[in-house]
Amino acid sequence: MREKVTRQAILQISEKIVNQEGYEALTLARVAKALEIKTPSLYNHISSLNDLRKALALHALKQLYHEIMTAAVGKSGEEALKAIGFAYIHLMKDNPGLYSATLSALDPQDTEINQMSSDTIAIILRVLEPYHLSEEKAIHFVRGLRALSYGFSTLERQGGFNIDVPLNESISIAFDIFIKGMIATLKK
């Protein structure tokens, strides 16, 4: 017997679909099939595929916020920044489809998405405060950290690190170089 269909159940199965099959696999028909219901039954809980994608993106952003906050707690400076970078990598690696939901073409005017994104970035900006960077320079740092994390997680997921050298050590060294280099460059 199948479980009762709720908005939360739809979100959970959607997360499973995007993580296993990719973000592009998320369709209402695919979700309905996984829940063993007819597609029109989904409309009792969601208004559209865009509504579902927005809910999934918000869920992903909340998870990212939590992971980054947890990584930064009790740390400061370079240690906190490195921990945040590793948190990004772990979330992207463990939940690739869910992370893709944060990158999807959602409404750029959506206040909920924008607020959650801003709250997440604010954690990193707070860690950067002791470096006295301008807001623009701090955003350059955030973008670089995110891009470096994304690169490592993507390459690892696609089997791009087959040399017998500890990957976490490579990541740690790259973060050290990036953090020290960016701080030195941006403080000029």
Annotation keywords:
single chain; 188 residues; mainly alpha; Arc Repressor Mutant, subunit A; Tetracycline Repressor, domain 2; MT1864/Rv1816-like_C; HTH_TetR; TetR family transcriptional regulator; DNA binding
* CATH architecture classification of the largest domain: Orthogonal Bundle
How much helical structure, as a percent, in the residues? over 70%
Q: What is the tally of helical segments? A: 8
The helix-strand sequence is HHHHHHHH
Question: What do you see in this structure?
Answer:
This protein is mainly alpha-helical and 188 residues long. It folds into 2 domains: 1-46, Arc Repressor Mutant, subunit A, CATH 1.10.10; 54-186, Tetracycline Repressor, domain 2. It is built from 8 helices and no strands. It has helices at 7-21, 28-35, 49-72, 77-94, 96-103, 111-128, 135-157, 167-186. 26% of the residues are buried.
Question: Quick gist of this model?
Answer:
This protein has 188 residues and is an all-alpha fold.
Q: Helices and strands in order, then pairings?
A:
Elements: H1 7-21, H2 28-35, H3 49-72, H4 77-94, H5 96-103, H6 111-128, H7 135-157, H8 167-186
Helix pairs in contact: 1-2, 1-5, 3-4, 3-5, 3-6, 4-5, 4-7, 4-8, 6-7, 7-8
Domain HTH tetR-type: 4-64
DNA-binding region: 27-46
GO molecular function, one term: DNA binding
